[in-house]
Amino acid sequence: LGGNFETVAVTCETNWKDCVIAVTNYLWSEVVSDVVDYLAKEGIIWVLAIAITSTILIRIKYCKNMHTKHAVLNKQILNKVGYKIQDLELKINVLTYKMQYGTWPLPHQICNLNPKLRKIRMTVSNPGDRKNWLKHVLLKYV
What we know:
Blueprint: H1 6-14, H2 16-41, H3 43-101, H4 107-111, H5 113-120, H6 133-140
Helix pairs in contact: 1-2
Keywords: Membrane, Transmembrane, Transmembrane helix
Transmembrane segments: 43-60
């Protein structure tokens, strides 16, 4: 090895805990100084290093933008699914209202279903109710 390794050898002989740090510092300074000296002599290497670094940075920016774009698209898809689930829940609540009361809800009741959603929702968890329409439909295909 080139350079001044004697100080590192003395450090390793006297204090083994500092040996790892001394060797790491020595190797880092030797590698960095050799690379900088080599790059100072060769201009094409600088061009390649800048091109590779630029390519890596552009790729990182592209991947970050694509990740953000996919996250936005996934959120939009989940919102659409959420609206479809709410629509399905509303349809089920209207049908259960029909089943419970034997008549369709009036238009003003349908318009105001969100505040009254808890009142007309029929439970699926009642084990004694075998005539429960919603439970029958859900358990029919299990």
